[in-house]
Design a protein that fits this description.
The chain is built from 22 helices and no strands. The chain has 479 residues and is mostly helical. Helix 2 runs antiparallel to helix 3 and helix 19 runs antiparallel to helix 22. The termini are far apart.
Amino acid sequence: MKEKFLPVWLLAQRELKDQFRDWRILFPLLILTFIFPPLMNVVAGRAVSFAHQYGGELILDRLVPFSILIIGFFPVTVSLVVALESFVGEKERGTIEALLGTPFLDWQLYLGKFLVGVIFPLLASYSSIAFYLFMVKKQDLALPPTNLMIELLVLAAAHAFLMVSGAIAISTQSTSVRAANLLASFIVMPVAILIQGESVLVFWGNDHLLWLAIFAIMVMAVLLIRVGIAHFQREYLLGREIDTISLKWIWHTFRTSFLGEVQTPLEWYQAQVRGSLRKMKMPLILLSALAILGSIGAYHITSALMPAEIIERAAFSEGEIKNALNEFQAAAGLPSDEIEITFGFIFTHNVQALLVMFLLGLLSFGILGELAFVINIGVFGALFAVLEAFGLPATTLFLAGVLPHGIFEIPAIVFGSAGVLYFGAVMVTPNPSRTMGEVFIHAISDWLKIGVGIVLPLLFISALIEVYITPKILLYFTQ
């Protein structure tokens, strides 16, 4: 194992020497590393003065950790240029042939470049944080607790891993440094938005959720590394000189994948939809198990979190039950009584939920999409727990009010989520016979086959039953 990773370190050493000799990289990096902390310190000082006027002690306690979070992020954005030009820069300098001619394996080349790309951001980020902490200590301000300080340092490293892994993946797919630098905005902006959410957790003081955020970021970084290695092709780096967008080729590739050579809808179902279902056999099994476990878990969590005074009482007035159900509907994102429940509303709402799930999965290789799936499927278990807590006949209400349309809606959610999971798995799986763009188009096509051929019909039937049949069944059993 040590011998396999030796070429990675040798390549990293060579790259590090070149980078530390290049003043065009070091000079702006040093400026941002040691100029931004004093600027942030001035801003923090003004914020402290403002908070003192209005008694904002909670804000003061979290201001230094928030500043550390921001200070650790900005040097990474500047040093990201090292990762962005890791492969495409070698190509423009004319040294890519010598690099690819070495006896190193593809993953060794990739990880060697990744190691160099991570070291620079981490050095810059930690140096900037250390300089800021030195200034804070000189001003006799309270430093963050040890556990929070560890979280912030690990979070800075997680940001560096995520951004560098994305930058190197871009570098392997770009044909010029200019194109790679322009595509860097698709790395910096999402991480900047992510930091806004993390800053809320810092001010909120929820350390457990912050650790979960760190874990999610590291999973995304590992997946991006996997994507880069899976679609790393030496011939691609040497062959293409310019990227062009051919809408005709994109449409032809998608149409061939989506329709094939079929002539009728029945043939399409037999050939295309059945073929996509075979590909998604394992995701379907996993998500079916996850649906069962998620519902059971949501039931137990909701039962544990229900207030004791609600559980102890077995009878409620009609007004109390209505208010409690309205609060549950608002918390679960369900339509309230003020919204007219129609077939169009139910069907559109369900389709929108699945599209959001797919878009989230598209941006995260399926991770956020499956998180949305767990939340959607967990509503059923949570609803059962709430009905029990109210002292209502939960089993009867569930069978009469959820099951009639649920036998169609739940499988639709499972099929749609399986397509999202399959998309993420395909994107991180090596496929030498196809380019990354072809893999992406075929994965989208497979998801749409399941969506159009199975999910939409199931949601259509579910909406009809939920509007016209379920209320009658529920009324019959509750009279």
